Amino acid sequence: MLTIAYIALGSNLGDKNKNCTDAIQMIENLPGCKIERQSPFFSTAPVGMEDQDWFVNGVISVKTNLSPHKLMRQLHDIETKLGRVRVEKWGPRVIDLDIIFFGNEVIDKNGLIIPHLLMHLRKFVLIPMTKISPDLIHPLLGQTMVELLKGLENDDQAIFPI
Length: 162
Hints:
By secondary structure, the protein is an alpha+beta fold. The protein is built from 4 helices and 8 strands; from the N terminus they run E-H-E-E-E-H-E-E-E-H-H-E.
């Protein structure tokens, strides 16, 4: 059975655009995965640990027959191949790949939490999501991506189109 998964991408080390583009190509080459849509990239201020370079962020939708856990393992493998070293939470990274949604599934098992716990608070996820799936409904919050983004109108997270 095929499921649509949404994956957020981010990079703030090296050639950020290339890191994201390379990750997308590697995801496209995974057996059982086909990229359906890709948002534009955005330049975004860091969140959580602010004393670091800005990020390039985007979102893709992928049609997959992989399980959520298998997809996450494959994404971690891609991060490693692109040079990601996990040093500190929210620290600088060559690439960061997160499953935001996996169909309408709600998962909290073996370290995998879907929908992503903080996605509804992050403009760098919501703005790209509104570009590829504005009417997608968050399975726990019952709001569309557009509605969730409107809830952050007064938030000062800096994000600019590239």
